[in-house]
Model the fold of this input.
Amino acid sequence: MNKIPTIFTPKIYIASSEEGFDLKTKIIEYLVNKTVVDVGPHTKYTVDSVIYACMVAELVLEDERHCGILISETANDMVIMANRFKGIRAVIVTDDISVQHSKKILNSNIFCMSLNTEIELIEKWFNIKNIYNEKNMRTIYLMDSLHPIGCI
Done:
């Protein structure tokens, strides 16, 4: 009996603080042709955004082909929380240079953005591939292996 191969569709997990709620909605609309999972919040009421950062990090770790987007006023809180998970390489992206470096060199898997980050940078981030050379691979290995395990 022949098995039909299944096509894997990578997921983009997205979450925000209450300040980032409107921008998150715009990003979901912008990424209409991708598989985006809205992790929350689902209202503009005050939330503990670091909990959503934990949820996105855990979901991204389920498969290395998944990635995440976190949005808050400055993105600092969410990037710190996401990076507490071994295997997560969350970065705050602010311009073309940080987009290039975060993917080519660091192979980032969570894109963190403040409220003034241009939405178009997300598409650039998706389209950049990691450069697998010895130095970059060593950097990624060290980030993952020297990282404390666990969250809260």
Observations:
- The chain has a mean pLDDT of 90.
